[in-house]
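Q: My labmate handed me this sequence with no annotations at all. I'd like to see what the chain might look like in three dimensions before we decide whether it's worth expressing. Could you predict it?
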Amino acid sequence: MTPADIPVFILCGGLGTRLREWTEFRPKPMVPIGERPILWHIMNHYNRFGFRRFVLCMGYKSEVIREYFLNYYAMNADVTVDLGTNGLRVHRREHTLDWEVTLAYTGEKTMTGARIARAAALYLNGAEHFAVTYGDGVTDADLAAELRYHLAHDRLGTVLGINPPSRFGELRMKGEELESFEEKPGLHGVWINGGFFLFRRGFLPRLSPGEDCVLEQEALSGLARDGQLKVFTHGGFWACMDTLRDHEHLNDLWNTGRAPWRRPDIA
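A: Here is what I predict for the chain of 267 residues:
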């Protein structure tokens, strides 16, 4: 079992209301980091470790995602268009990506669990394992190592556990004396859901195609309660683009060449 065998289901259907400045006209996964949407960055990081099959579980403003990928080849190549025949001749590609991208409309108001259930029913294509992630988070985690960890145990699911930084500086005190100051330290002993999952096919009966099925509620809590969810811990970089401030931070990292998720072979 290699990463190339694993379909990656990406949740791309939410409204992104806390980023309304950007999401009024596009879905949240299409908000740009640098010159490309954050969705591209997520897929590119998976591809760094050999994953190449992607199923985009679309909803709100799905046409924006659809247009981006349907026109990707022509927009990243030198081409000649024959207006008489509507023919297209490609002269030179400006990318080497070999991604297989399935554009799956899963409903306008469908919740996360239902989006996975609806897309997997059509596009799992016999795979015994599959990945799931959100369309708004980036990391420098080794996703191939997470897959190896997942395949080595017999539980139904694996979640990437991350240790997030505090939003505030921490004062470490001894009585009234300041011993040390740390700017945005890691939260000591706290691990949270990093949003990069791997599941066995046997997880799917815990999901429902009914639009109110939420992945993060009964499906995952039940998995944990039954001892069927393992954690692959990652102490490195992770960030979620929830707010305008998050968006500005990620853009600053990318535009200054400090983005931990940047691939050295693809700018």
